[in-house]
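Give me structure tokens for this 542-residue protein.
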Amino acid sequence: MQPKKVASLPSTCVIGRVREIAGGSAICSFDPTQLKAITGHEDTTVAMSGQVGSQVKMRVGDLWLLGNVRDMRMDEAGSVILSHIDFLGEGPEDPATGSMKAFRRGVTRYPVPGDDVFTVSRADLVLVFAAEDRPHIEIGTVYPTEDVRGSLLIDAMLGKHFALLGSTGTGKSTSAALILHRIVEKAPKGHIMMLDPHGEYAAAFSSNGMIFNVDNLNLPYWLMNFEEHCEVFITTDGSEREKDMDVLAKCLLAARSKSRIAESLGKMTVDSPVPYLLSDLLGAINAQMGKLDKASDLGPYMRLKTKIEELKGDPRYAFMFNGLLVSDSMAPFLSKIFRLPAEGKPISIVDLSGVPSDIVTVVVAVLARMVFDYAIWARREPQRPILLVCEEAHRYVPSDRETKGVAVRKVLERIAKEGRKYGVSLGLITQRPSDLAEGVLSQCGTIISMRLNNERDQMYVRNAMPEGARGFLDSIPALRNRECIICGEGVSIPIRVRLDDLAAQLRPASDDPMFSQLWTEEGDEAGILSRTIHRWRGQGRG
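Here you go.
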């Protein structure tokens, strides 16, 4: 039975006292009788004050100090409730109303043991979360209120990267779509590229984004640098790999040198994105083979030739290794993929679901590196910052150091460390934060965490979040779907937010199948099988 709502209590009343003070926290004692008395207050924020995850405040001279309740326990005598309070920030007291105004993060003055602890009102939280003077997006409602809006500060969030975390089924994809839709509404001339491994987001951004897949991506193979060429063309390990790499480096430079663009450059390396013909690369390999004295040295050349011819002839790789992609299409390719200009569609969704699994990490590496390299070489130009959003990020920057996918890990780690200097923002979305490479999550200035069921994941996020968010962290396993904890640069203070609903046509195609309903339907099984097998055999074509 819900407690009856009463308004007889003031919105700011004493509920406890300060017991101990440390650098960033305090231990307070709450009066159980007073906590019970405020539960029926008509202001939900006041009613929740003193509970785990809620806010309380203390007066220090003419300042109000805001804190977050981390935990609660009864003292040994059973007379008071003891609680750790993490300090969030402070704001001067408004002489006219007695409430807080102009809230700022950080603490300059501390209370002393014996000082009173007060409830926080809805009006206080409105002032704390107010972002009218800074560019922001509203994404939901702040817990425990029903109408105080939670905002993300665009410049602070994108300037220092962000991560969206959550177990499968918590609404992570829909939340990512919500945040990106809100950003696109605010910045219709923006530049966003999303790497979508499951093809979920095409449905969500059909009206305000460009969708690229294996049918229209047309990613030129010659944009790969030497390391990426090695991942695609070389299949050996150990000393044999070293030999293969030496041969490839020599022949690749020879093939690139035949381009008319190479003549105008003067100086060129194997990493220079200069167009070349695969036939020229094969010709260079044959020419080098002709110079050999011993047949025993042919191994590296034959392996390279076989792999290149295999890629040329396999229709699955046609989006990249295609004879039509030899012209200098670098400018139009970067224009369409980075949305330069945006032309009303500032986000490009790169659907990787049709890319063969053995090459998908290289495709991601090339696209991510193009973002970073463009930003570096365009430093003398008017700046066009780019946001790179990486879904299933743990695939590309895994915590274990394995030999495969080295190029993509290197480039994403470099963007995480250095990207903000050049105007590249990174958004990582993952269901397994503990599987991310060490240090990458800690480079994200804003962390948006939905429910995480795995204890190892919770620990990993706890280590990455700032001290002031401790009280919120313990509630991560108890979050409802479409609810999240946000902390870091993108918010004034750590907050728990109930995210807004998205219209059906703006949601990604990530809903779980309804077995109970779908298993009651029947009909046209033969047609389903026939059409499926046709697409299967054609690898998505036809």
